[in-house]
Design a protein that fits this description.
Elements: E1 8-11, E2 14-17, H1 28-32, E3 35-37, E4 40-45, E5 48-51, H2 54-67, H3 76-89, E6 95-103, E7 115-122, E8 132-141, H4 158-170, E9 175-179, E10 185-187, E11 192-197, E12 200-203, H5 213-224, E13 229-231, H6 236-240, E14 244-249, E15 253-260, E16 263-264, H7 273-285
The structure holds 4'-deoxy-4'-aminopyridoxal-5'-phosphate.
Length: 287
């Protein structure tokens, strides 16, 4: 699904078939989960292929790499150009783009000063495959922000997301929802969350979340449309009294939350602010 024998990736300066890529078994990326990555989408628009928020995503990739004390040898503009080329070489227009920087071999617990850079692309429909999802409150919490860097997209951080997603699926839900160490709602395994309450939107502030690029885009659209929005902490109990809620993320775009632990939100999805923002977001990405 993600690649086949003909898939071309960019790897350390060359465009090559994925099957030719070799990584060292002593890489810190394998042993300690030390790498950083991005999830980006390209859209087939009337004006050709457009990578949505390309600059913001590659800036975040470089920011994340610097958290690992690694300075990538590519500029944002070079990274954008590589991404367009990999799309073209794979004949893809509507696609998901995955750049990853993974640190090289070194078994000590000090960041390796060398890294591989790989960029791959694949076709990926809306994440979870639905416009609205059923969610469960996870038994997993987001890590303490003093235990890792939650504002960087570090590969090792994703064990938390995989545990929460696996638990949610095993319980029969589409997705999990994690609280922070203080018990406030934080985010989904790969999505930010918004709740609608009396015509106003609320979303958790930065600190215990990955500050999503879709989250920012949706906030910008909401402001443009005169929709009031507040970043503040809220509890699961408050969320249960909301009129509606939705997730945002590059992979999922904007998706309604039908229910949490089988308790449905009262507002019909089509009458919510989230639905309005989904229409606006779709027009924004596909034009
Ligand atoms: N939170 C987490 C933990 C994520 O992995 C993602 C996906 N990158 C998001 C939120 C949403 O971020 P974005 O809108 O930038 O894709």
């Amino acid at each position: 699904m993600f690649y086949n024998d003909n898939t071309i990736a960019f790897f350390d300066g060359d465009y090559t078939k994925v099957g030719n890529i070799r990584m060292n078994p002593y890489a810190q990326a394998i042993h300690y989960g030390i790498g950083v990555f991005e999830g980006i989408r390209a859209y087939d628009t009337p004006n050709g292929v457009k990578i949505f928020k390309a600059k913001e995503h590659f800036e975040r990739l470089i920011y994340s790499a610097k958290v690992l004390q690694y300075d990538p040898p590519y500029s944002v503009d070079e990274l954008i150009s590589i991404a367009y080329q990999v799309l073209e070489k794979n004949n893809l227009k509507d696609a998901y783009i995955r750049p990853i920087i993974s640190l090289c071999e070194n078994m000590t617990l000090k960041f390796s000063t060398e890294a591989h850079f790989m960029l791959t692309v694949w076709e990926w429909g809306k994440y979870l495959g639905k416009e609205c999802v059923d969610v469960t409150l996870s038994s997993y919490q987001k890590p303490n922000p003093k235990s890792t860097r939650l504002d960087a997209k570090i590969t090792g951080n994703y064990i938390n997301s995989v545990l929460a997603t696996t638990e949610a699926k095993q319980k029969g839900f589409d997705e999990g929802l994690l609280t922070d160490l203080n018990g406030f709602i934080a985010e989904g395994p790969g999505e930010n969350i918004f709740m609608e309450w009396n015509g106003k939107l609320y979303t958790p502030p930065q600190g215990h979340i990955l500050p999503g690029i879709t989250r920012q885009t949706v906030m910008d659209i909401a402001k443009e449309d005169g929709i009031e929005i507040e970043e503040r902490f809220f509890t699961p109990e408050e969320l249960f009294t909301a009129d509606a809620a939705f997730f945002t993320g590059t992979a999922i775009e904007v998706a309604g939350i039908n229910s949490i632990d089988n308790q449905k939100f009262p507002k019909e999805w089509k009458n919510t602010i989230g639905y309005h923002l989904l229409q606006r977001y779709s027009a924004f990405t596909r034009n």
